Amino acid sequence: MRVANRRGFTLVELLVVIGIIALLVSILLPALNKAREDAKRVRCLSNQRQLVMAYQMYYTENKGRLCSSNTPNFAPPDSKRWWSWAAAGNTLSCLSNGKLWPYVKAYEVYKCPNDRIMYTHTYSINGHLAGEGPLPIYTQGAIKKAYATFVFIEELDPRGYEINSFMVNRYPSNSWTDVPGNMHINAGIISFADGHALIWPFSDPRTYTNPQIGMSTPNDPDLRQIQAWVGVGPFPPGVVQ
């Protein structure tokens, strides 16, 4: 009986196959990473839409009064002084004790899926909406342009937990107070008082390259954009709201 002569792969053939596989991986991996990031952006957009909807439901049930964007130490819920959207601290109780918790009882909604820094939540509320800002807005009716007044924004705080609201120095200041979080490859997610949310691609590398709280960035288009969205003038000329 004759036995067939079996021939294996040569070294050259194996190297060719490995090279082809490596080439395919190098082509497909960026596409897979982009698809993964796109999915996280969609999830983050959904998070903020849910939170701004909760924000709207709160003021609808409270005669148009906005919940505070500050995050002080928790006071008993029957206290008239307690009206903050979230409480201070780095434990999950800071969310469950907040005024928006009855409307969104899911901890994961309060955090960006890309966030590996903040303990409990990624998002902060505009400091000019019943918060620390000068000329604060306390009622829904006092918001002049809901479509151009931001509510929630991803904030970067190196301490690992958000403290109070997201403060913006009004135009013509050239310095930030708080800085947006670079959670989506040189972009952030931001939502507005009319309920819509969008992906905000940063234009200036200073916004996402080692940003510092209180940093000065003259002629920064990102700073001018957030000043246009803060809801309280003066507004930078020529910036689309």
Helix and strand topology:
Elements: H1 11-61, H2 93-96, E1 123-125, E2 150-156, E3 179-180, E4 187-192, E5 197-201, H3 205-208, H4 221-228
Antiparallel strand pairs: 1-2, 2-3, 2-4, 4-5
Task: Sum up the structure in keywords.
single chain, 241 residues, alpha+beta, five-stranded antiparallel β-sheet, 4 helices, 28% helix, elongated
Order of helices and strands: HHEEEEEHH
Shape designation: elongated
Helical segment tally? 4
As a percent range, the share of helical residues equals 25-40%
Number of strands: 5
Q: What is the total domain count?
A: 1
pLDDT < 50 runs, ≥5 residues: none
In terms of quaternary structure, the protein is: single chain
SS content category: alpha+beta
What characterizes the major β-sheet? 5 strands, antiparallel
Strand content: 5-15%
The average pLDDT score comes to 91
Please state the CA-atom Rg, rounded to the nearest Å.
24 Å
The N- and C-terminal alpha carbons lie at a distance of 86 Å
Summarize the structure.
The protein has four helices and five strands. By secondary structure, it is of the alpha+beta class.
Descriptive notes:
It is a single chain. The protein is an alpha+beta fold and 241 residues long. Strands 1, 2, 3, 4 and 5 form a 5-stranded antiparallel beta sheet that branches. It contains 4 helices and 5 strands. It has helices at 11-61, 93-96, 205-208, 221-228; strands spanning 123-125, 150-156, 179-180, 187-192, 197-201. The termini are far apart. It has one domain (35-228). The model has no long low-confidence stretch (mean pLDDT 91).
